[in-house]
Amino acid sequence: MTPWRERVESLDTEHRHMLSGGTLSNFFLRGSLTSGHPVFVSGFYGALIGLTILLPYAYDGLMVENGTISDVIRDCAFQTLILISMTSFLGGFSLMVSTVMKRPPTRLENRRKFIFPLPFIGIVAISLEIIFDNVPDNVRWLGWAFLILPGPLWVHLSYAPRWRILDRLDRGVDAFEGMGITIYGADEDGIAESDSELEEVLDIV
User: What is the pLDDT of residues 10-58, one digit of tens each?
Assistant: First the structure.
């Protein structure tokens, strides 16, 4: 068992629940904390977005622009690199904000109904803008915003603050030093139900 896992087990029930995260968090944290760094996790989400736009870009390149398969692959690869760079930057920014603000992770199970539809709306908007000539250009930008937002939002609100605390536990320093509040809703909610991050984000992707 890694040091941070041992130290999490020594905490009280509420803080163990907060730091245990959901299945998705545990998937990224099953190895070392370095491999589960928010920058890498956010970049992985950017790569997944790159896969989702492959079909609309293929239609645009082959049917609309009369290009070749190599053109489509080149354009998609370039766009995916941009997405990975963008989401990785946002992941690093979220960790920096979490380090400065020293805020605890937010549970997202009650917000799934707001986050879940966004990527679907985004990919539909992008596809419509590509297929139909009379769709305003700003529809594509709105679609991109809806497509990109959920992953970085999850990292910013939930994953990055949790990773910061786990990293401090792993280094053997006071994980909650300087925090005005160490867990949201501890007084009134007690132990919340296990969060459903896997359903949230995998459904989103």
Answer: 888 888 888 877 777 878 888 889 999 999 999 999 999 998 888 888 8
Q: Which two tokens stand for residue 166?
A: 């786990």
172: amino acid identity, one letter: G
- 116, 204 Cβ separation under 8 angstroms: yes
Q: Is the pTM of this model over 0.85?
A: no
Q: Which two tokens stand for residue 187?
A: 């007084």
Residue 28: what residue type?
F
Under 8 Å CB-to-CB from 202, ≥6 apart: which residues?
Answer: 24
- Residue in this structure with the two tokens 């509420």, named with its chain if needed: 14
